[in-house]
Amino acid sequence: MPNIYQVAMFNAERYPDKVAVSDERQALSFGQFCARTRALSAYLKGLGVKSGDRVAIMTPNSIDYLALLHATAVGGFSLVPVNTRYGAAELCYLLNDAQPTVCIVDPAYRPLREQIEAEGGLNSAVQWLEHLPESLPDHRVDDPVQHRFGRVGDEDVAIIMYTSGTTSAPKGAMLTHGNLSANAVNYIMELGIDAHSRSLLATPLFHIGGFGVVNGPILYAGGSLHVVPRFEADAVMDALRLYQPTHVFLLSAMWVGLTDHPDFKELSLPDAQFVQTAAAPLGQWRQDLIRTVFPNAEFSWGFGMTESCVTTIKNRYTQEILEHPGSIGYLWRHVQYRLVDADGKVLPDQRGPGEMQVRGPTVFKGYWRQPELTAQVLDAEGWLHTGDLIRVDDEGFAYFMGRSKDMIKTGGENVAALEVENCLASHTDVREAAAFGLPHEYWGEELVAAIVPANGREPDVESLREFCRQKLSGFKVPKRIFIVDSLPQSSSGKVQKFLLRQRYV
């Protein structure tokens, strides 16, 4: 497979004056974008970044963020996107695990850097940057082949994307250049994306969905991206009105924010061909309103995970949603799948429900520096064990039945229940804790917890939430905490969270 820089250079030759990326300040053609990509690669090389190194970035979406993604193919380094909602402890953990040579941090997050430096928590040196130079000379790579095509192969790691797991510590999922290209080809074929396509990039690039769903594939096809730094309903509506995109991908919580805005219904976007959501279902009235604002667009869902380089299941047409209520779509043509039972045996009829395992060119390389964890989810034959329980109907449409992994997906963020439970249990007023998700229109799942007080203690719920807030990111703090006498347990001593969900739903 080609790498994304190689394809951007192809687009620069084929469409030399065509706008590739824009924001509220500037627009760059494909040629200018590729020049910026090479210039940033050379600049980082001057700071000591070598092939095989990591470069971390904790900033809002930007044109330079996209250029750095492409620069990985020129410089041979891997980009490590950092969730801008991280606290100091989480950022420190990521930096110690990824060990980047350079960390680009927006000035807004300077207090996190200062706290980390004051506490002396880093186990290796890192160069901090708050700004990338606005003006850099174009850099011509000495080797003309590398100048045109980059210096990486399919199996070289482009991105290390940190994602929460069933343990308390996030894991760095290694996505290769081949993964990114295969995902782009999938989207181009399934959605009919081409050089006339335009997308609005408002989903954060620290999630694989920000680049992998619609946006990266459109750039790959020679289309154009308009970058919005972060999701704010007013800013996104202004950009939609001005830019008139053909494709729009937003997380469910973002669509809720838009459809709740009193001015959303006044928008008119007749050029839009596809609008897509992910992370959680949307209420019917919200879907109807979206279809009113985007009258000519197909409305679609997507389903996947970071380790599969985002989407593995998708519908393409609104009619498919209407004719298969509850379905999350069909398995893509370039992805193999199989359903297995609780013992890992392949189900004979492949209808399920069973755990879905996938294999194909979009499946990740493994977890950074964690071979044992990699072996737990990626077997020797290349099958990725997703932990998602799926059934498939006779027409090939898939239905999500639940998670075998103990995760809460809230507002597009994956939260490991164990991390929240460990935090609560460290409070002197708490003996036991169980974190779980409840259905919620805005968040998809509302993160809640049940706690058993320590003997003789009378915990205050708001004090517990404030305690969590000091130790965890805001999205990991339970929205509600229930105080109970005991947690329901199985005969083996495992907490039966389905009984807690039934009690509080």
UniProtKB/TrEMBL annotation:
Its recorded name reads: Long-chain fatty acid--CoA ligase
So where does this one cross the membrane?
none
Name the domain of life: Bacteria
Report domain AMP-binding enzyme C-terminal positions: 419-494
InterPro entries xrefs: AMP-bd_C (IPR025110), AMP-bd_C_sf (IPR045851), AMP-binding_CS (IPR020845), AMP-dep_synth/lig_dom (IPR000873), ANL_N_sf (IPR042099)
Q: Which Pfam families match?
A: AMP-binding, AMP-binding_C
The UniProt entry's sequence similarity note says: Belongs to the ATP-dependent AMP-binding enzyme family.
Instruction: Give an example GO biological process.
Output: fatty acid metabolic process
Sorted keywords for this record are: Ligase
Query: What would you give as a GO molecular function for this chain, any one?
Result: medium-chain fatty acid-CoA ligase activity
